[in-house]
Specification:
single chain, alpha+beta, 8 strands
């Protein structure tokens, strides 16, 4: 198993997408890239800690490569929005890749370059950051879409379009 850490706005939304990928065994929501040890959701939402809402994905690289994972990441959020995703505004919603080693850093850079090449006239603002300490989010944030999220108007507005992008662009990668 391998792991990847990415931040693409609300972690509820990115978690919902990556849980559906073939080869993914676990997705954990959390915080990374800030200065406060063991931050709370309230602290991160204040925008004062420097953390991003992120997910840590455990995956089988024989089924889903890190490069494939980055391609899905770039396609299922808006990497052109600086410090925001839709109505979520602040550095905690930034688009960022947190590589765990030099190979992931190179693959992240290559993924951003592929996205830019495929989207002439647009430029991704996705950053590559780290190394940084990972902090799991509170329990009630884990598997949010599968529980509370399907009754949350925000999630109902944001997550289904992301899942549609996943299905449209990566149908062969979605769990059966």
């Amino acid at each position: 198993m391998a792991q990847a850490i990415i931040a693409g706005g609300c972690f509820w939304c990115t978690e919902a997408v990556f849980r559906r990928l073939d080869g993914v065994s676990e997705v954990e929501s959390g915080y990374i890239g800030g200065t406060v040890p063991d931050p709370t959701y309230k602290q991160v939402c204040s925008g004062q800690t420097g953390h991003a809402e992120a997910i840590r994905v455990s995956f089988d690289p024989a089924v889903l490569t890190y490069g494939d994972l980055i391609d899905v990441f770039m396609a299922t959020h808006d990497p052109t929005q600086l410090n925001r995703q839709g109505n979520d505004i602040g550095t905690q919603y930034r688009s960022a890749i947190f590589p765990l080693d030099a190979d992931q850093r190179a693959e992240g850079e290559a993924g951003i370059a592929r996205w830019n090449a495929d989207h002439a006239g647009q430029s991704a603002v996705t950053t590559i950051e780290g190394p940084a300490q990972w902090y799991p989010a509170e329990d009630y944030h884990q598997e949010y879409w599968e529980g509370e999220g399907q009754r949350n108007p925000y999630c109902l507005a944001v997550i289904p379009p992301k899942l549609a992008k996943l299905q449209k662009g990566f149908a062969a990668r979605v769990k059966g």
